[in-house]
């Protein structure tokens, strides 16, 4: 019997940013027997017609427009569930699911998962699990909080995603610069992800250690962990440049990360969805929360890395949970999967990407996802936190060392040429 026996479509509220990630979510629905009803700000062209049954192009920040699209879909189809693959849609999904009796986090839990300040407040009785923090809007509030927390520290948007707007601050001069830049940046007219949180900034303790994310689901109150990803980020703006799955953390450190995950899920009230938790593990073993989203991770972690390593596609399990089913955990012998992301290092216009053919012949390389094409503008932080990403290489192997070697060989084969903006 098809897993879609109780309904014929699953509603997707927007898709991931790249075609490779988009196809992974769509084919996951298809393999489980569902059609997709897509509601999106900018639906991509050439969607697979046998999978995507209906498309509604609407402003997904407009609740009334989204509700009207859902109503139109429900008039012609049975809706089995609703899913979003990125942060801006989390609260809308929770609201719609609550109205229609579909599995999803509660609106209260979704609000917490979209607000880094509320995340930390939810764990106020567990100061061992969170950095010292404060929410600030004005410069005076920022100065007062910085004096209490002490340098180094981090300034970032309350509602940002995808490493947007993260600043490491080491002294008073850097604090002023970071605050001024964020005050100009954290506005809906700059990026609509800040809708409802204009000018809201969180200032917090700089955490020392290694960076990781936890990928999993919550189904009817039970936490299922697919695994932990080791992350590589830039030191200044914390842009993610690499992922390795599964983690190389020692068993006792992994258990601490799992304990943090269960505590966070409980404190936030997250249920009936995928989650993507980011944390820092101190060299001496303590672990603290960075943030936790009530949706799956991006940057090819859930679309490719987890499935390639475990044998059980993450996106399929996300759809299972969104339709009231228990996730299926991989039982095959584990492989390793990883990604390296090549960033532009100067502002200008992308002229060419050389060596792609050679990189694709490297043993273990599965995919190369192009994010910028020749003629595109390339900008770097703090002017822009997205357009410096040029491409990502995904590789698999029977060991972590094999994956790292494949990624290194592929990166060496590739040359990115950017014409100076001047």
Automatic annotation (TrEMBL):
Pfam families: ATP-grasp_4, ATPgrasp_N, LAL_C2. InterPro entries: ATP-dep_AA_Ligase, ATP-grasp, BL00235/CARNS1_N, LAL_C2. Signal peptide: none annotated. GO terms for molecular function: ATP binding; ligase activity; metal ion binding. It comes from the Bacteria. Residues 120-323 form the ATP-grasp domain. Keywords: ATP-binding, Ligase, Nucleotide-binding. Gene3D superfamilies: 3.40.50.20, ATP-grasp fold, B domain (3.30.470.20). This is Alanine-anticapsin ligase BacD. The gene is bacD_3.
């Amino acid at each position: 019997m098809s897993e879609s026996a109780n309904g014929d479509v699953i509603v997707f509220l927007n898709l991931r940013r790249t075609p490779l990630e988009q196809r992974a979510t769509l084919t996951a629905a298809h393999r489980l027997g569902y059609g997709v009803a897509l509601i999106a700000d900018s639906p991509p062209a050439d969607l697979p017609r046998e999978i995507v049954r209906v498309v509604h192009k609407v402003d997904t920040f407009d609740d009334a427009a989204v509700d009207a699209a859902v109503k139109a879909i429900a008039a012609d189809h049975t809706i089995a569930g609703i899913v979003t693959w990125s942060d801006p849609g989390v609260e809308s999904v929770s609201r719609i699911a609550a109205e229609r009796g579909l599995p999803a986090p509660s609106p209260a839990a979704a609000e917490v998962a979209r607000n880094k300040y509320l995340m930390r407040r939810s764990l106020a009785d567990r100061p061992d699990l969170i950095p010292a923090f404060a929410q600030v809007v004005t410069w005076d509030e920022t100065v007062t909080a910085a004096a209490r927390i002490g340098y180094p520290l981090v300034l970032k948007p309350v509602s940002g995603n995808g490493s947007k707007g993260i600043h490491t601050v080491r002294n008073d001069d850097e604090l002023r610069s970071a605050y001024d830049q964020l005050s100009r940046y954290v506005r809906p007219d700059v990026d609509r992800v800040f809708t409802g949180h204009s000018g809201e900034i969180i200032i917090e303790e700089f955490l020392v250690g290694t960076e990781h994310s936890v990928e999993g689901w919550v189904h009817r109150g039970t936490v299922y962990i697919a695994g932990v990803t080791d992350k590589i980020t830039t030191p200044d703006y914390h842009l993610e440049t690499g992922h390795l799955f599964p983690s190389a953390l020692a068993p006792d450190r992994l258990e601490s990360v799992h304990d943090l995950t269960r505590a966070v899920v409980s404190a936030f009230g997250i249920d009936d969805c995928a989650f993507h938790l980011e944390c820092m593990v101190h060299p001496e073993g303590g672990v603290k929360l960075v943030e936790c989203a009530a949706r799956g991770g991006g940057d090819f972690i859930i679309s490719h890395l987890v499935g390639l390593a475990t044998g059980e596609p993450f996106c399929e399990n996300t759809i299972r949970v969104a339709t009231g089913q228990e996730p299926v955990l991989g039982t095959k012998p584990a492989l390793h999967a990883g990604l390296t992301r090549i960033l532009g290092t100067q502002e200008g216009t992308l002229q060419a990407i050389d060596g792609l053919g050679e990189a694709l012949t490297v043993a273990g390389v599965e995919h190369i996802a192009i994010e910028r094409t020749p003629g595109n503008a390339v900008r770097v932080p703090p002017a822009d936190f997205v357009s410096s990403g040029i491409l990502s290489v995904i590789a698999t192997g029977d060991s972590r060392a094999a994956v790292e070697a494949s990624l290194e060989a592929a990166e060496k084969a590739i040359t990115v040429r950017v014409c100076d903006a001047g």
